[in-house]
Amino acid sequence: MVHKMPLRWVVTAPPRSGTTWISKWLTQHGYPTSHERVFLSLDPANPTRLRFQRCIYPGESSYLAAPFTSELREMGIKVIHLRRPLEDVAKSMHRLNWDLGQDTHFGLGARTFTPDVFDEEPFSMAQYLRFAEEWTELIQADTVWDLYDISEDNLTDLEGLT
Fold first, then answer.
1. Rounded to two decimals, what is the model's pTM?
2. Are 69 and 138 in contact (CB under 8 A)?
3. Which of 9, 18, 50, 78 has its CA 20 to 30 A from that of 71?
């Protein structure tokens, strides 16, 4: 039986910043965290509306949460910004040739929250970097974690939330 539980923390960042890895790391350290389950998709009819999917863990890790961080904080949910150098993020996105048409969640988010970034095709490294910078500016976090400096010390930020 799957129980629905309240969301207590969200880790967010631009795409390709390590949100998959951090969800696994947190879960291994006793802080169950799903990855792109709660914010699985943006609502095509109204992408600026916060819409929760099923929540079976107290934590979620997803780049799609970034535009909604102020609302999440108002709801009492702790928001953690996972930081990775934006140049690394842009290189990863460019290397994978992310296409707004092929990845509907990314495309919808990019067009809605950073509408002026992808104005030419093929997409350039500069556009990906600009997107990562603008997406990062959407994040209002309670704390910031550096992907390359994660340790058990970071877990103190989640004490009392499980």
1. 0.92
2. yes
3. 18
